[in-house]
Amino acid sequence: MILKKWNELPNFLKVEEVKEYYDILRKRKISLFFKRIFDVVMSFVLLVLLSPVFCILAVLIKKDSQGPVFYRQVRVTQYGREFRIFKFRTMVDNADKIGAHVTSNNDSRITKIGEKIRNCRLDEIPQLINVFIGDMSFVGTRPEAIKYVKEYTPEMLATLLMPAGITSEASIAYKDEAELLENAEDTDRVYVENILPQKMQYNLQSIRKFNLIYEIKIMFRTILAVL
Q1: What distance in Å separates the CA atoms of residue 57 and residue 118, rounded to the nearest whole number?
Q2: pTM (two decimals)
Q3: Beta carbons of 123 and 114 less than 8 angstroms apart
Q4: How far is residue 201 from each of residues 28, 92, 207, measured CA to CA in Å?
Q5: What is the pLDDT of residues 21-45, one digit of tens each?
Q6: d(CA 53, CA 133)
Q7: CA–CA separation, 209 and 194 (whole Å)
Q8: Which of 28, 101, 163, 191 could bridge 137 with an S-S bond, Cβ 3.0-4.6 Å?
Q9: Angle between helices 16-26 and 29-49 (to 10 degrees)
Q10: Sequence-separated (6 or more) residues with CB below 8 Å from residue 1
């Protein structure tokens, strides 16, 4: 991953609140380079090893409900670039058009097989494709929908200096996020006002602590959290 020069960043990122985090990353360019090398090699290996799992889950999803195998919602990654995330579809087709972009445990849009896939966190593994092609990284701020990025404070924008990630400190701390939203009348409002700011504190702190050893530890902690 190559960090752009300050004057090459999108204008919305060139603010004082972001500069502090930019200077931290600028001093760690070598780590950023090897982070990308690790992402490419490891995602390729895992895609090959997990290809049988991909095929099995694809068949189960298609047999369970109508719609595509993958869920391809638009999300936001490094420098504010929009991309389509790969996830196994765990909800009815066009679920984002009939409800909030975040889900709770009692969400009626979740399919039968989708609930099982979510419980095992298997819906996330197609994001290895996003990692391989450079949209995402193994570790980084979870990619948010455009509507939530618009709610970022100037400091939160610093998380867009790096690619979005499959996992993070915030992901581990909020692995049961759906339970927190279960009884909310307005899930979008509760997410933006209560959960997002707290998750962003973890994400910003992770930029301060960034190095490859730290990120590998997060990956192992994520595996333990899922288990």
Answers
A1: 12
A2: 0.86
A3: yes
A4: 21, 33, 10
A5: 999 999 999 999 999 999 999 999 9
A6: 20
A7: 24
A8: 163
A9: 80
A10: 32, 33, 35, 36, 39, 78, 137, 162, 163
